[in-house]
Design goal:
This protein has about 120 residues and is mainly β. The protein has no helices and eleven strands.
Length: about 120
């Protein structure tokens, strides 16, 4: 059974940084799949933050370009999201996803940016 576990969320002040991690278990297909980070705030649809393909090609939402960096370590079945220069509007629950289409989702980790 595929399981994704996110960690690294928390409460930070504007301008600070956080690094999210997502570890996948129960799968031997991590390295060949696109991984993604998404976020959701109450009352809004979940939105794409960043994706990284098996070839390490990356894609970012315009709102995070230049501030966030997605990376992956296939040996550890882990995908990361380095978030710098955080803004209050980055506050959300962040989810990682394995695959495209329906895919597999983690339970999410809360990121709160507030002074």
């Amino acid at each position: 059974q595929v399981r994704l576990v996110e960690s690294g969320g928390g409460l930070v002040q504007p301008g600070e940084s956080l690094r999210l991690s997502c570890v996948a278990s129960g799968t031997n297909i991590f390295r060949i799949n696109t991984m993604g980070w998404y976020r959701q705030v109450p009352g809004k649809q979940r939105e794409l933050v960043a994706t990284i393909t098996s070839a390490a090609s990356t894609n970012y939402a315009d709102s995070v370009k230049g501030r966030f960096t997605i990376s992956r370590d296939n040996a550890l079945n882990t995908v990361y999201l380095q978030m710098n220069s955080l803004k209050p509007e980055d506050t959300a629950v962040y989810y990682c996803k394995l695959g495209t289409g329906v895919g597999y989702w983690g339970q999410g980790t809360q990121v709160t940016v507030s002074s």
